[in-house]
Amino acid sequence: MTRQALVRMKRLALRNLLALCGLFAATSGPAQAWVERAAKVAPHPRQIAWQQLEFYAFVHFGVNTFTDREWGTGTEDPKIFHPTALDARQWVSVFKDAGMRMVILTAKHHDGFCLWPSRYTEHSVKNSPWRGGAGDVVREVADACREAGLKFGVYLSPADLNAPSYGDTEGYNTYFKNQLRELLTQYGDITEVWFDGANPRKEGMKYDYFGWYRLIRELQPNAVIFGMGPDVRWVGNEGAHTRAAEWSVFPSPVPLEQFHGGDSTAEDLGSRAKIASAPHLLWWPAETDVSIRPGWFYHAAEDAKVKSVETLLDMYYRNVGGNCTLLLNVPPDRRGLIHENDAAHLRQLGKVLQSTFQVNLADAAKVQASHQRPEAPASAITDANPATFWTTPDGQETAELTFELAGRRTFNRAQLMEHLPVGQRIEGCALDVWIDGSWKEVATATTVGYMRLLRFPEVTTDRVRIRITGARWAPTLSKLGLFREATAPRP
After folding, report:
1. What is the pLDDT of residue 369?
2. So what's the pLDDT on residue 487?
């Protein structure tokens, strides 16, 4: 082996070691190519539109509401489903007041009871006493959402413990697609289709996921598919716990058209070490599902266990402000109403969020950047136009931006947003404020993605600085927000 070859081998070994540690900032050669490739993985427009919804409601409602169970058996008598005062407009009013922008309804849970009058089963609302057997919960919720300007989505359990064909792969998949077609053609635009991974399977039963995906793309091309599907991944837990670095770029052994999910529970899903040798990189962003109560369906025994406003606000910051969307389950009670306790907490949450984020104290700030492109200057960060953004020249992975505010401002929350149409790139950042003649660091973060919300003790200043301490290829920012959080009222 020549000395030159030995030097090349040592350099390659060092790069591999650093990559495994997630530390190698590529500047040349093959490593530069995969970092650039990762930086340029971008979302589909339907994924961007979905992430802009930020915070929305999950509604678990059905026979379990009346049996006081979490999972049904499929043997329940439809006659037990009898809400006495169901009012979907009341649900939507509460959700809208909380700041939510969509409702996802459990049209069918594992027990197989359908909240719409499906032509393919007798196990549905059409055989309940509610509305004299002529009711349709899906219709009422979809219409209420449309009237209020909220988006609508459906949960259809892959399992169905009532269906005679469950266990017969061919027969059941035909049955399932027939019901899916009903939901996708009878209720207007569907924004998200939600498939639960926690469902009871029968031996030998194989779900035709790719057939389901094709049907959704055919009938509702703008709908995102949650779960093992190609659009949205589960954050990995039901406790609203997010990662310090939540990447939307996900390594995959197969291309998108063959993709059927991956492990979304690991702490590290998208670091440089994870993506360095991935055959394919996909945009697979995270959604957090969590319930406002201990259970997913309504239980009277949990009326005093509704999460506090402070807890809900913390979840909002960590999830919406951590490059996830927040899907908060709020189960209607046996009357068919959102219980007074849940409604009160949600409306108080909405007041705090609206009061906190209504005035951006960084508006009209003057910006200077250590690096920028002429076509993407730093001034784009504060121009209130989401289509414009700041970025650096290719390969410049660190930068500083200084903001001169329109006067001294007092704040304790900051919002950073990347320009997702070109990808997710920031790996590390810090926020400094000018205090007593010097810069003081008040907050740090790893990834930004769609949004990063930073919390810190209240400060008063007329200058702030953002330091991009690490990025892939060329970082972007489309917005800086500075806010003073309103005091959260106690229930």
Report:
1. 98
2. 76
Give yes or no on whether 45-357 and 366-483 have one common fold: no
Domain boundaries, the chain: 45-357, 366-483
Average pLDDT for 88-92: 98
Which pLDDT does position 488 carry in this prediction? 57
Enter the tokens of residue 420. Answer: 């997702």
Q: What global pTM score does this model have?
A: 0.92
> In this model, does residue 96 exceed pLDDT 50?
yes
CATH entry, 366-483, from 2.40.50.140, 2.40.10.120, 2.60.120.260, 2.40.40.10 = 2.60.120.260
Question: Strand 102-108 to strand 151-156: parallel, antiparallel, or no bridges (unpaired)?
Answer: parallel
Assigned token pair, 145: 């959402």
Residue 41 has which token pair? 């993985």
CA dist., res. 187 & res. 185, Å (int): 6
Per DSSP, which regions of 73-208 are E strands? 102-108, 151-156, 192-194
Dihedral, 261, 263, 264, 265 alpha carbons, nearest 10: 160
Distance (Å, whole) CA 337 – CA 48: 32
Which run of H or of E encompasses 319?
Answer: helix 309-319
131: how many CB neighbours lie within 10 A of its CB? Answer: 15
pLDDT at res. 199? 81
Please report the pLDDT score of residue 262 as a whole number. Answer: 87
Q: Identity (one letter) of the amino acid at 320?
A: V
Backbone angles phi, psi at 173, to 5 degrees: -65, -35
What's the whole-number mean pLDDT along residues 128-138?
98
Q: SS3 breakdown of the chain: % helix, strand, coil, rounded to 5?
A: 30, 25, 45
| pLDDT tens by residue, 296-336 | 999 999 999 999 999 999 999 999 999 999 999 999 999 99
Residue 356's identity, in one-letter code, is T
Distance of alpha carbon 91 from the chain centroid? 21
CATH code: domain 45-357 is 3.20.20.80
Model confidence at 198: pLDDT above 90:
no
- Among 160, 161, 153, 133, which Cα is nearest to 216's? 153
